[in-house]
Amino acid sequence: MRLGFAGTPHFAVAALDALAGSRHALAAVFTKPDRPAGRGQTLQMSPVKLRALELGIPVHQPSSFKTPEAVDLLRRLDLDALVVVAYGLILPAGALAAPRLGCFNIHASLLPRWRGAAPIQRALLAGDSVTGITIMRMETGLDTGPMLAVRAVPIEAHDTAGSLHDRLAGLGGELIVEALNAIADGTAREEPQPAVGITYAEKITKAEATIDWRDEPSAVLRRVRAFNPWPVAETRLDGVQCRVWEADVAPTGVISPADGAAPGTVLAATSAGVDVACGRGAVRLLRLQLAGRKPLHAREFIQAQRLAGARFEGP
Questions:
Q1: 205-244 pLDDT, tens digit each
Q2: Residue 237 to residues 223, 246, 312: CA-CA distances in angstroms?
Q3: Helices 10-20 and 161-185, packing angle to 10 deg
Q4: How far apart are CA 88 and CA 14, in angstroms?
Q5: 303 with 296: CB under 8 angstroms?
Q6: Between the chain's N and C termini, which has fewer beta carbons within 10 Å?
Q7: CA distances from residue 140 to 144, 159, 173 in whole angstroms, order as listed
Q8: Residue 283, beta-bridge partner list
Q9: Residue 246: is its pLDDT beyond 90?
Q10: Each residue of 33-84: pLDDT tens digit?
């Protein structure tokens, strides 16, 4: 089949590579316009654009698909199908209807759970034990289309948004090629999404990254894992921002708030980690970063900071 591809971030690159190595022909890549970044605010290309240029695939960067010109471009490309992965632009009905067989999306959840922008982080925050990839036909509704393929993966105890992102990105590439092969061979079957179990994955904001030490240990750890590598869970130490990159459950026997320690209080600071009181227990911080500094493992962090009697601040 003659395909187009629409995607922007690193998550979409694995699917682009999988399609480039498939039996199908990639005629064009769509990605969001270059955007200024860094202190110099120089224009930077998206990861998908960089990879498409390496592969020698023509790249298009409309600022919107709500214009007749953008839809006409899709029609002129004479595509059999358009694969969409974390593109970042809304495709209206006219754009969805432009490819001969339609548009197909790789979504990083087991639909209809976690429709929307941040399914990986929301699954971790909610404490889900399983997630996966769904290949669906796109409709004008938010992730509502019928499913062509679904594959589940377990969420491991120490998975972060970063590690889960990488596993799901690779799986998405594999599954979209299988689905497109089935479409080309006439063996594809579409199933409507279940009417129950619908949840929405709202976009992540930096404000959500602040640790509330009154939460139970499991909730604190979910926040640390869900916001690694962005925006990174944070607290404050002596009024200074302190990011928490890694944490674990504190060993049995560490003092809890029930024993008189206020949430956020440093209970112990050793080379093994920084134990901090929270609701009904304690967590052990393993990798921390003060504002303007590089991330440090606990054994290095405690050498540079006086933590005796210290207390991390919450919201």
A1: 999 999 999 999 999 999 999 999 999 999 999 999 999 9
A2: 18, 17, 5
A3: 30
A4: 17
A5: no
A6: C
A7: 8, 33, 23
A8: 249, 276
A9: yes
A10: 999 887 777 899 999 999 999 999 999 999 999 999 999 999 999 999 999 9
Contact 210, 313 (CB under 8 A): no
Distance CA 43, CA 165 (A): 25
Domains of the chain: 2-201 (3.40.50.170), 206-313 (3.10.25.10)
CA-to-CA separations, 131 to 99, 126, 136, 198, 283, in angstroms, rounded: 30, 11, 16, 14, 25
> What's the start-to-end Cα distance of the chain, in Å?
53
- Classify each residue of 169-204 as buried b or exposed e, where b means 16 or more C-beta atoms within 10 Å of its C-beta: bebbbebbbbbbeebbeeebeeeebeeeeebebeeb
Alpha-carbon gap, residue 165 to 283, rounded angstroms: 25
Q: Measure the CA–CA gap between 119 and 102, rounded to whole angstroms.
A: 24
> pLDDT class for 290, splitting at 50, 70, 90?
very high
Beta bridge partners of 145: none
DSSP 68: H
Whole-number pLDDT of residue 251:
85
Rounded to whole angstroms, the Cα distance separating 27 from 38 reads 32
What's at 287, amino acid-wise?
A: R
Q: What are the tens digits of pLDDT across the range 134-171?
A: 999 999 999 999 999 999 999 999 999 999 999 999 99
Cα→Cα distances 257→51, 132, 248, 262, Å: 51, 37, 17, 5
Sign of CA dihedral 201, 44, 103, 181: negative
Check residue 254 and give its pLDDT. Answer: 59
The answer to whether the CB of 199 falls within 8 A of the CB of 153 is: no
